[in-house]
Amino acid sequence: MPLIIYDPSSAADATRGSVCDQLVEALDLIPTFLAALGADPAEQSHRLEGRSLLPMLRGETPAWRRFVISDKRWKYVHAIGFRPMLYDLASDPHEFCDLGADPAYADERSRLAAALHLWSLRLSQRTTRSEAAMRAARDASLRRGILIGVWDEADLEDELWCAYRG
């Protein structure tokens, strides 16, 4: 569906009045608002799945989504207990012709089913800490002297091993 955004900053002057066909979702709005207010949306990545749209509003072309479960051309609908539905939005924008049972589109259904599967396994569904907190915690067990899977103390920094030697 269309989304109209106005960025009042001068950084968006170059793109003012332009049309962008990138795939965005409603969940991108809160990270966009946070970024516009000067906050870092990445600090809330454990709660927010979306991405800030400010880079696009300001003329940048960040690496972005390849699909939003509906890619630019195809819409794939999967409901448990029913066969998949598939619509070609280029030739059927009103979704009148379901291609979900047509053998000619089996490869497209398989491709979109795989994308849906990967999307359902994304880490954002399971994290309870921000990316920054997880980065800071990496290797914390080594700093506390917890030595899991260490075969030779010579492989360790002395500060991590000296507590065991007394």
Strand % is under 5%
| Separate helix tally | 6
Q: Report the C-alpha radius of gyration, rounded.
A: 23 Å
Number of strands: 2
Largest sheet: 2 strands, antiparallel
Order of helical and strand elements: HHEEHHHH
- Spatial ordering of strands, largest sheet: 1-2
Instruction: Count structural domains.
Output: 3
Tell me, rounded to a whole number, the average pLDDT: 83
The structure class reads mainly alpha
Ends distance: 66 Å
Helix coverage percent: 25-40%
Shape type: flat
Low-confidence stretches: none
Question: Could you characterize the architecture of this molecule?
Answer:
By secondary structure, the chain is mainly alpha-helical. The protein has three domains: 65 residues, no CATH class; 62 residues, no CATH class; 27 residues, no CATH class. Helices cover 28% and strands 5% of the residues. Strands 1-2 form a two-stranded antiparallel sheet. A hairpin with a 7-residue loop joins strand 1 and strand 2. It is flat. It starts with 28 loop residues before the first helix and ends with a helix. The mean pLDDT is 83.
